[in-house]
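sanity check this record:
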Amino acid sequence: MNGKQAAGYLAAGWVEDGMKVGLGTGSTAYFAIEKLGERVASGLRIKAIATSKASEDLARKFNIPLLQASEVKRLDIAIDGADELDAALNLIKGGGAALLREKLVAKHSDRFIVVADGSKVVDRLGAFKLPIEVVPFCYEWTLGSLQERYDVPFALRVKEGQTVVTDNGNYIIDAAFGQIASPRQLAEELKQMTGIVDHGLFIGIAEQAVVGYEDGHTEIIKAN
């Protein structure tokens, strides 16, 4: 069992019968969904909201019943991965271009649990490029505004020669900030800029993280 699987499986074990669950997106969240599917097959009764079309497809594959937001005000628990996390459980997310849905689900959950392998734990956020979701309309202006305000490299995310489009129909701009001295301040500044829908800084949202290592052991980090 590798680190991602160990983390995902342990977190999935905390889901209890009757819970409403947020299903994350990405390679570590995959294992949490897989384990929940095994538990559903063994009689666990849950309902879920997925943070991406890919995770919706996984939920259906594993016969996990899906909810619509109109059916519930809050979720009991959400389990999702991270591209980086620090000791205070500040996160960078959005490598899979699902950051907006992930943040909506996390903020509407009573508990938000992060699952990650040991390589994602950092002393300070920023080595991973910060994803920023922007509206396609005049995105060039939004990109220009970012470049004027911050003296760091920004790039529209492109994959196989095509602009990446999120499940919400938006674009992603990746920002190479390097070490971020004040994640909370940056998060607030970015949210105020017209054209930006949201960004991948998750500040003060996660309750705890399950970190898995290649030898199969796990570590639990709680928010300060």
